[in-house]
Amino acid sequence: QSVLTQPPSASGTPGQRVTISCSGSSSNIGSNTVNWYQQLPGTAPKVLIYSDDQRPSGVPDRFSGSKSGTSASLAISGLQSEDEADYYCAAWDDRVNGWVFGGGTKLTIL
Amino acid sequence: QVQLQESGPGLVKPSETLSLTCTVSGYSISSGYFWGWIRQPPGKGLEWIGTIYHSGTSYYNPSLKSRVTMTLDTSKNHFSLNLNSVTAADTAVYYCARGGSVGVPAAMDWFDPWGQGTLVTVSS
User: Fold this and answer.
1) A72 and which of A18, A31, A34, B79 could share a cystine (Cβ 3.0–4.6 Å)?
2) What is the pLDDT of residues A44-91, one digit of tens each?
3) How many CA atoms lie within 13 A of A92 on its CB side?
4) Which of A43, A47, A100 sits opposite B112 (nearest CB)?
5) Average pLDDT, chain B
6) Average pLDDT for B95-106
7) Which pLDDT belongs to residue A56?
8) Is pLDDT at B105 greater than 90 in this prediction?
9) Residue A50: which of B62, B110, B114 has the nearest Cβ?
10) Which residue of B has its CA nearest to A31?
């Protein structure tokens, strides 16, 4: 049981827009920044969004992050086949005094 | 460009100690970022293990704290993870990672970059 809650799966067709949610509480998302990681099949995770809505250099602007209260979202527009991956949200938790992750969302491109 | 590479035994016996090293190239671990370990059991999600700063300050996952020790070796530019009294539940791919920013509180930081990961199996 993960501290942050994500849907286990999401899907879309090429060109569509998909949103992945991440629900937490006042001790994590509600008071700290949210980061999103993309894990392509067989590879290590890499940061996709940091500090709620910031994209590292090299990440396409098709990826965007947002946060409201104790929930966060990752939006991917103009879906491409190479976006098929697992996506994880993460945040610092003041009760744990460390990072907590969501259970991950497997994105399938139909 | 900073790169991280995990190394250590791929097989550990139950009740023994899992020891891994993360060798860093392209950046000095004695500088301002934090260094951390995250693991992923086969087919499952990510779990934060712990984080250590160049100052020596460390944070451990409460669920693992009694069994975890992390250290920095600045002379070899690597950092290490020891996890004792392992069971089959500790079988996972173990990743090392660096913090994403210098000078921000942990609560505002992130993991970037990551090593490629190393699979550790606990079995007799």
Assistant:
1) A34
2) 999 999 999 999 999 999 999 999 999 999 999 999 999 999 999 999
3) 19
4) A47
5) 95
6) 91
7) 96
8) no
9) B110
10) B107
Task: Determine which of B40, B58, B110 to mutate to test the interface with A (most A C-beta atoms within 10 Å).
Answer: B110
Q: What are the CA-CA distances from residue A90 to residues A26, A98, B9 (Å)?
A: 14, 10, 29
DSSP H/E element including B51: strand B47-53
Task: Please judge whether A98 and B62 are an interchain contact, meaning their C-beta atoms are less than 8 angstroms apart.
Answer: yes
**Helix, strand, or coil here: A88?**
strand
CB A89 within 8 A of CB A6: yes
Model pLDDT for residues B47-68, shown as the tens digit of each residue: 999 999 988 889 999 999 999 9
Average pLDDT over every residue of B66-89: 97
Amino acid type, A99: W
What pLDDT score does A1 carry? 84
Residues facing A46 on adjacent strands: A38
> CA distances (Å), A36 to each of A8, A77, A91, A105, in order?
15, 16, 9, 11
Could you give the C-alpha distances from B52 to A81, A88, A92, B42, B92, in angstroms and in order?
A: 37, 22, 15, 25, 21
Q: Which helix (H) or strand (E) holds B40?
A: strand B34-40
Q: Say which residues have a Cβ less than 8 Å from residue B80's Cβ, sequence separation at least 6.
A: B19, B20, B21, B22, B70, B71, B72, B73
**pLDDT value for A36:** 98
Q: What is the pLDDT of residue A34?
A: 98
Return the exposure string of A26-39: e unless at least 16 CB atoms fall within 10 Å of the residue's CB, then b: ebbbeebbbbbbbb
Cβ atoms < 10 Å from Cβ of A58:
6
